[in-house]
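pinging the channel bc i need a second pair of eyes. not urgent but kinda urgent?? the chain im working w is below, pasted from the shared doc
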Amino acid sequence: MPPANADLATTWAYLEEGVDHIMTKLQTGVSYSKYMSLYTVSYNYCTSSKMHGTAEQAGGGIGHRTGANLMGSDLYNNLIRYFVNHLKTLRTQSDSLQDEALLRYYAQEWDRYTTGANYINRLFTYLNRHWVKRERDEGRKGVYPVYTLALVQWKSNFFMHVQSKNQKLAGAILRLIERQRNGETIDQGLVKKVVDSFVSLGLDESDINKVSYEVYREHLEAPFLDATEKYYRQESEKFLAENSVADYLKKAEERLREEEDRVERYMNTNTRKALIQKCEHVLIREHADLMWENFQQLLDYDKDEDLQRMYALLARIPEGLEPLRKKFEEHVKRAGLAAVEKLVGEGGAAAEVDPKAYVDALLEVHQKNSETVNRSFRGEAGFVASLDKACREFVNRNAATGTSTTKSPELLAKHADALLRKNNKMAEEEDLESALNKVMVLFKYIDDKDVFQQFYTTKLSKRLIHGVSASDEAEASMISKLKEACGFEYTNKLQRMFTDMSLSKDLTDNFKERMQQNHDDMDITFSIMVLGTNFWPLNPPTHEFIIPQDILPTYTRFSQYYQQKHSGRKLTWLWNYSKNELRTNYLNQKYILMTSSWQMAVLLQYNNNDTLSLEEIFNATAISKDILKQVLAVLVKAKILINEETDQYDLNPNFKSKKIRINLNTPIKAEQKAESTDVLKTVDEDRKYVIQASIVRIMKARKTMKNQALIQEVITQISQRFTPKIPDIKKAIDHLLEKEYIERVEGTRDTFAYVA
């Protein structure tokens, strides 16, 4: 070991021998004392203040600090010379190597070199800490700590030399990767080692402690991405020329997985984004048109797995799903229209569509495609919107509805009515509940919800009046579903109808009690329903009616009782909705006839006559002749009356029936037809008021508004209930101008102001 004041030549000769041992023969080991003596020599030289050889001439007697400075630079320059010479040897040995052999040699030498450089960096700790730091602080950026210096030398004297020959190093890596892509097994650890060295060689001049990816990006990532693009472009074109799109989807999915895996195994993670984007572009984007074309075929044949794959792949590229959503929407719409067309059949008898069959057909299409959305398209919002749009289209306009927008809500309401009646086939309550939920699925798509509401209200009123509801729970459940979908306003009337029913029950009981106390002679069983005009969609009879003597006392007593209880209320008797039961006393067998009020009024005339003409019956009952003829036709068909001569009706003394209770109370055609017309008339009336109220609300909030903006706002607010027609809105505006709720702003043609 040289003395503390030894000159540069002596010092470096000792140090170089130690450095070379560490750099080339480290595997043979270094003793602790040897290592410490090397450290001490380096330290002594840096701290010696005596001027040596060249330093003396150069420094010309500058003080202690400069001396230390020069000591540092001497050692530093000698280290550089050592690294350059050492790397020359490696260079010469690498020149004859190719591909995997080159990579093995490179990785082995890189390991040896970086390990050695790490030890040497610690030997020269003092140099790093003082001289290098000071040089860098003074702005000399070309001076580095010893380990970084070793990397800089490796890059310029070995790495660049190998790379400069047709990117020999990167090329060797890329060829290995290609072999792996072709299905061969490669040494991934080797590739990772070499790839990591590319990252380590990056140097951020502004902060040498920061990782820099410039070398990796320039020398490996860029050529790797180009090679990837070229490889997959060729592969995908060749594969598609020989295989189906469904097979290609599997292949592309597999390849994308492999590339993700490749980044995990040996590329730098920063490459992931660029690599995956490149693969997506080549494997998906460039063949997207072909996938879009094949989408319909997969839908037609319910190829679930392939649809899932196509969705997952196209979801990766911008705008990849939009064409699928459009095609899916068209597909669902076509399926819906076809289902109804099949139902309506060749005859095109739209009027005769069975509500249940109609609703089931629509639901089947919705159910199937809804499952596709959830299963194949992961319930993605865009596809849900496409499904909704298509359903809205075919639910409101199809072969059964023709041009009418009111047909669908009418059929849906009739189906709901059938479900909620006593005689429906749903044995279990859960079945009924799920059937009602399905009604709500379609209800969501109905444009004219007010038409459904009106039909539903009418049907509900019939169920309640005739006592044929399946159960109060089911009725309440349906109302709460409608309330949830449309708000309190929508179901307010329906709930009031139930209130009236329970009040009527109490009223009947109280009236009976009173009659038992005051009149023992009441031999008629009687129950009453008093229903609020505003809540029940019921119309009183359009013609006069002479109340039969048999029920007149009860009629009079109840009217008086009610007036005492509620003075000021007016009762309108709805004979057209009332029901009666008559007992036959003129036959051997006693029958009970269940009749309407009109049938009862006609039959009671035969208590005093055996035969009556049409005119006589008309005079006795005042029922209008067109309805009277239909009433008589039902009684003749049931063989209770005989009609042998024109307009002459005899009581049949030989009437026989297998049933004891005979229901004669079937709806009259004229009444059924009138129901639909009445409902639509009511809807039209209601709409006028809804539009007017909406305009007043908007104008009250906005104070002034232009015509076009007002119309738009009205449409937006009302479209939840129905789609208003623009001429109707204009009529409503004119009506409100006339009534002075709003006025035109002076000097303008199309601006309105609210009149407070």
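so Residues 669-702 form the longest helix (34 residues). and The chain is about 65% helix and 5% strand. — does that match what u expected or am i reading it wrong
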